[in-house]
Amino acid sequence: MNRIRAARQALGWTQDELADKAGVSPRTIYAVEQGQTCRQATKRKLLQALDVPWELRGEYFPTPRKVRPAAVEQSAEGARSA
């Protein structure tokens, strides 16, 4: 289960209540609970509203995957075909 959702439900809050307390839209709460990425500022607001220390953010938000930039891939393909 999503940690943000679990923390919200443990407090007995609805998505609308968390959105109000964090100063974000209910749509943002829904998106975050569905696993979509969000801005660092949004993460701070949510964790602060849930009274979770910033240092524990890695437990509540998955770390983004590292993706190679397209320019590196294209230059590598060009080198292979030469």
Descriptive overview:
There is one protein chain. The chain is mainly α. It has one domain: lambda repressor-like DNA-binding domains (434 Repressor (Amino-terminal Domain), Orthogonal Bundle). The chain is built from six helices and no strands. The chain has helices at 3-10, 15-22, 26-33, 40-49, 57-60, 70-81. The longest helix is centred in the C-terminal third of the chain and has 12 residues, at 70-81. The N and C termini lie far apart (48 Å). The model has no long low-confidence stretch (mean pLDDT 87).
Feature tags:
82 residues, mainly alpha, 434 Repressor (Amino-terminal Domain)
Helix content: 55-70%
Q: How would a textbook summarize the main sheet?
A: none
Number of helices: 6
Q: Which class best fits the helix and strand makeup?
A: mainly alpha
CATH domain topology: 434 Repressor (Amino-terminal Domain)
Please state the average pLDDT score: 87
Radius of gyration over alpha carbons?
A: 18 Å
Task: Bin the strand percentage.
Answer: under 5%
CATH superfamily: lambda repressor-like DNA-binding domains
Overall spatial form: elongated
Low-pLDDT parts are none
